[in-house]
Automatic annotation (TrEMBL):
<feature type="transmembrane region" description="Helical">
    <location>
        <begin position="225"/>
        <end position="242"/>
    </location>
</feature>
<feature type="domain" description="Sugar phosphate transporter">
    <location>
        <begin position="4"/>
        <end position="215"/>
    </location>
</feature>
<feature type="transmembrane region" description="Helical">
    <location>
        <begin position="106"/>
        <end position="123"/>
    </location>
</feature>
<dbReference type="Pfam" id="PF03151">
    <property type="entry name" value="TPT"/>
</dbReference>
<dbReference type="GO" id="GO:0016020">
    <property type="term" value="C:membrane"/>
</dbReference>
<dbReference type="InterPro" id="IPR050186">
    <property type="entry name" value="TPT_transporter"/>
</dbReference>
<feature type="transmembrane region" description="Helical">
    <location>
        <begin position="42"/>
        <end position="60"/>
    </location>
</feature>
<feature type="transmembrane region" description="Helical">
    <location>
        <begin position="12"/>
        <end position="36"/>
    </location>
</feature>
<keyword id="KW-1133">Transmembrane helix</keyword>
<keyword id="KW-0472">Membrane</keyword>
<keyword id="KW-0812">Transmembrane</keyword>
<feature type="transmembrane region" description="Helical">
    <location>
        <begin position="144"/>
        <end position="164"/>
    </location>
</feature>
<dbReference type="InterPro" id="IPR004853">
    <property type="entry name" value="Sugar_P_trans_dom"/>
</dbReference>
<protein>
    <recommendedName>
        <fullName>Sugar phosphate transporter domain-containing protein</fullName>
    </recommendedName>
</protein>
<feature type="transmembrane region" description="Helical">
    <location>
        <begin position="184"/>
        <end position="213"/>
    </location>
</feature>
Length: 285
């Protein structure tokens, strides 16, 4: 999950990672149905389809679109989905009853070190790390502090995730993780790089909104919100596509008119030049 996210960020923007990873809610819901046996109602299926089509609209207007980035994100979705559902089964095993969230996080990260070592060898990063360790890290205290802060935040995330898995379903956890990404997208657009056009921004909002709505389908207002959100999304997207087509058609007409004017101008100059040459030849004769 961590390595695929980092590889994806080399090719695509932060909002892209957030929006596409939101599709893991769909795969987790499917796995929950077949593995755990959780039922999915029609409205929940509708919200999942809303997320899916919203993500497609986003991808079509992604200014940082990259095949490599999207492949890494697909691998991330698979890993995230399998991880969430598997952890849900693990935390409810009898032998795991007396093991708390911190212990689970400890063993989880300890085992991950072996996978990290294998990946570092395969990607040939271990040799570079050892060769340039002193010049890269020992002389740059700031780099050490940033990595250390990242480790603390990662440990906090891991521990809270294990504690949360005992209270709510995997899909609800995915929804909770995705809903709070609004602030991250805004901060990324302001401080990192602006990568969203109007259509992509609307698609982002609706993907995350449908993600939140998935957890509200059991409530009385869930159906009304779903219908309203779908109508607004369709109307906004259709309006933007129509506006884009109109602008394109207008620009095409303007280009045609300019071409016609240029042709008229060229013909006029050609006739004028020809007339002048004829008069000159007649005068000489």
């Amino acid at each position: 999950m961590l390595t695929t996210s980092l590889f994806a960020l080399k090719y695509v923007s932060v909002p892209t990672v957030i929006v596409i990873r939101n599709l893991s809610t769909i795969s987790v819901a499917i796995l929950e149905y077949f593995v755990i046996g959780n039922k999915i109602d029609i409205l929940s299926i509708g919200t999942l389809f809303g997320m899916f089509f919203g993500a497609i609209v986003y991808a079509l207007h992604d200014l940082t679109f990259s095949i490599e980035g999207y492949i890494w994100l697909c691998v991330n979705i698979i890993g995230t989905s399998l991880y969430q559902v598997y952890i849900k089964k693990v935390v409810h095993m009898p032998e795991m009853k007396d093991i708390g969230p911190i212990s689970m996080s400890y063993y989880n990260n300890l085992i991950s070190l072996l996978i990290l070592f294998i990946l570092a060898c395969v990607m040939r990063e271990l040799k570079s790390f050892l060769l340039y360790f002193q010049s890269i890290f020992l002389l740059k205290i700031k780099s050490i502090c940033i990595v250390f802060l990242s480790c603390i935040l990662g440990f906090t995330l891991s521990t809270s995730a294990f504690a949360l898995n005992k209270l709510i379903s995997p899909t609800s956890i995915m929804v909770a993780n995705n809903v709070n990404k609004f602030a991250l997208i805004i901060l990324s657009e302001i401080f990192v790089q602006s990568t969203l056009d109007l259509t992509a921004s609307i698609a982002t909002i609706f993907v995350l909104f449908y993600g939140w709505l998935y957890s509200q389908t059991k409530k009385t207002f869930g159906k009304s919100l779903f219908i309203l959100a779908t109508i607004i999304f369709v109307v906004l997207y259709t309006s933007l596509k129509f506006q884009h087509a109109t602008i394109l058609l207008t620009n095409t007409n303007i280009f045609s008119e300019l071409t016609s004017i240029k042709q008229i101008h060229t013909t006029f100059l050609s006739n004028f030049t020809k007339t002048s040459i004829d008069k000159k030849n007649k005068h000489v004769a």
